[in-house]
């Protein structure tokens, strides 16, 4: 497997595609979508371009057609997903790999967009895990400065960027359907820093992974996961979990199954995202949230001890289903310096 290459970056004034490759979130929650589009213009100097399925539920084939149109248009310099979802895996069979390979562009997405990021990785293109329009750009109050700095560097830059622990983070979500949500800043808690395990070496490699639940689906479908585990030798694994709050047993079993497939041992380092510990379906209290996070950490350590005992692990990295959010290159270079307790990426 060849190392993915970085696509050309946009500059201020360029057009960027805004797509809904999974859930048509803007059709249900127009407020954060409109706010995200407005901030793309005013704060990032870009011209968003929507497509037929951006604001309506569409078939997998229709969504694939919009992806093709966005990548094939020479005037479009980057592609943003509006939000995640749960069925992007059904879109991938309709994609034209050669068309996308011939027109590489930065793609920003997370959650269910892990499927498309995997597809780009296998196509030889670096993608970007994070930066969705509705959740990051359409955040109530304002785009968090921590998120904005990372997104801006990923969007416009190619330099090395040092990741930092977020100074604060949000646990409890606001209801997008409530008017009060849009008049106040989200409630935040003080940052807790990162947790390091076996931080006794320096690892540098290209990144792979994404949302653990979507990765599990890809493993079951045997779709975008390379059959030869050697394809991931020396890569940096990045994993995070969603607002569905998968139990620690599910996290362990997914990692165990990756181990049985011969995958887990290929990764000398793992960046584990700060877990989401609250949702509208499971509004856990503070004690239950702490237990959930601790149980997830124990599950990760149990799996790596069994299948990747030499691996270095960094916990609570602020990417994925987090606020604020770091954008991570998907297939780009990540350097994990254990002794210095530093993580840097190349955008």
TrEMBL record:
List the CDD domains. Peptidase_S66_mccF_like
Protein's recorded name: S66 peptidase family protein
The Gene Ontology terms for molecular function here are:
hydrolase activity
Species of origin: Streptomyces polyrhachis
Q: Does the keyword Electron transport apply?
A: no
Q: PANTHER family, from UniProt?
A: LD-CARBOXYPEPTIDASE C-TERMINAL DOMAIN-CONTAINING PROTEIN, MURAMOYLTETRAPEPTIDE CARBOXYPEPTIDASE
Cite the entry's keywords alphabetically: Hydrolase
Which ranges carry the LD-carboxypeptidase C-terminal domain? Answer: 204-336
């Amino acid at each position: 497997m060849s190392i993915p290459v970085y696509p050309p970056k946009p500059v201020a004034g360029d057009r960027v595609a805004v797509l809904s490759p999974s859930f048509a979130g803007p059709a249900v929650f127009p407020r954060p979508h409109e706010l995200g589009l407005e901030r793309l213009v005013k704060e990032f100097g870009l011209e968003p371009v929507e497509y037929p399925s951006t604001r309506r539920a569409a078939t997998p084939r229709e969504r694939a057609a919009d992806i093709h149109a966005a990548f094939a248009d020479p005037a479009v310099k980057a592609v943003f997903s509006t939000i995640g979802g749960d069925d992007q895996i059904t879109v991938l069979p309709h994609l034209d790999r050669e068309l996308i390979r011939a027109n590489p562009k930065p793609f920003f997405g997370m959650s269910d967009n892990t499927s498309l990021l995997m597809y780009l990785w296998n196509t030889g293109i670096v993608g970007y895990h994070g930066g969705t329009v509705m959740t990051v750009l359409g955040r109530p109050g304002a785009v968090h400065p921590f998120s904005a700095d990372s997104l801006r560097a990923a969007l416009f830059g190619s330099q090395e960027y040092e990741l930092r622990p977020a100074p604060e983070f949000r646990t409890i979500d606001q209801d997008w359907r409530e008017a009060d949500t849009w008049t106040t800043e989200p409630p935040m808690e003080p940052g807790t820093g990162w947790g390091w395990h076996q931080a006794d070496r320096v690892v540098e490699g290209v990144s792979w992974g994404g949302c653990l639940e979507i990765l599990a689906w890809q493993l079951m479908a045997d779709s975008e996961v390379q059959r030869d585990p050697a394809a991931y030798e020396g890569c940096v694994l990045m994993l995070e979990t969603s607002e569905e709050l998968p139990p620690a047993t599910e996290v362990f079993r997914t990692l165990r199954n990756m181990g049985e497939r011969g995958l887990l041992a290929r990764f000398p380092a793992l960046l584990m995202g700060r877990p989401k510990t609250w949702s509208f379906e499971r509004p856990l209290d503070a004690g239950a949230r702490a237990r959930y996070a601790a149980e997830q950490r124990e599950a990760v350590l149990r799996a790596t001890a069994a299948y990747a005992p030499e691996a270095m692990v960094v916990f609570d990295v602020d990417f994925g289903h987090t606020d604020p959010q770091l954008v991570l290159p998907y297939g780009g270079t990540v350097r994990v310096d254990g002794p210095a307790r530093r993580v840097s990426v190349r955008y």
